[in-house]
Amino acid sequence: MTVATDEIYEKYLQKAITEINALGDEVVQAGGGARVPVVGSGHPLADVMLLKYAPRPSELQEGVAFFGRSGNAILKSLQRLHVDPMAIYGTNCLKFADGPEEESRPFLLRELHIVAPKLIVVMGEQALAFLNGLGFPLGQALQAKEGERQSFTPTIEALVTPDIDASLDEQAEKTRFWNAFKPLGAWWESLPPY
Q: Strand 119-123 and strand 48-52: pairing?
């Protein structure tokens, strides 16, 4: 008996939803009720994972990564590039504003395994250093080459950009971010249709 591709995808999707929800629950428990956790958001089997270093006040208020100015800027950029925002997952390296890096590494490792993106957009030097220090299986150290696609693993590429949060107030920094981010559009167009 053959199983339709849609059925297989639905099974993977349900598994990913269950795992990402369980991970979110664990992040909340790690906060112990005293710290506000910020969890990732988006499609649990996204083609693209957006990764920035730490949560901002608006993200802490809502408990969701990429909430507020950075999320709005990313959404506008995705629209300009004709990239489906429903195929994106965004998260922070640090899950708490005041937590040590060591605490958040296992959470990000699991997020990467669950989402299994085809491309990670690494936003800023701190996010790049965090990802490079993660010890992801078959992961290669990424260079700080803004706007150039690099191989992170045999199945995952990476695109390094400036930190979106630091790029929103000055026009020169907005332009720098945009120039590094826009190769995502060409990459997206090159994907085979589903």
A: parallel
**Cβ pair 69, 77 in contact under 8 A:** no
DSSP-derived 3-state class of residue 37? coil
DSSP 96-122: STT--HHHHHHHHHHHHHHH--SEEEE
Whether residue 90 contacts residue 66, with contact meaning beta carbons closer than 8 Å, is answered with yes
What is the rounded distance in angstroms from the CA atom of residue 129 to the CA atom of residue 52? Answer: 11
**The two structure tokens encoding residue 64:** 């969701």
List average pLDDT for each run of 10 residues in the chain, which is 194 residues long. 75 93 92 88 95 93 91 94 94 91 94 96 97 93 96 97 94 96 95 77
- Among all chains, which residue has been given the structure tokens 């695109």? 159
Q: Give the 3-state secondary structure of residue 88.
A: strand
What are the phi and psi torsion angles at 164 (to 5°)? -60, -40
Helix (H) or strand (E) holding 24, with range, is helix 5-31
pTM over 0.85: yes
Q: Specify the CATH number for the domain of residue 79.
A: 3.40.470.10
For residue 163, what are the domain limits? Answer: 5-190
- Give the count of domains, the chain: 1
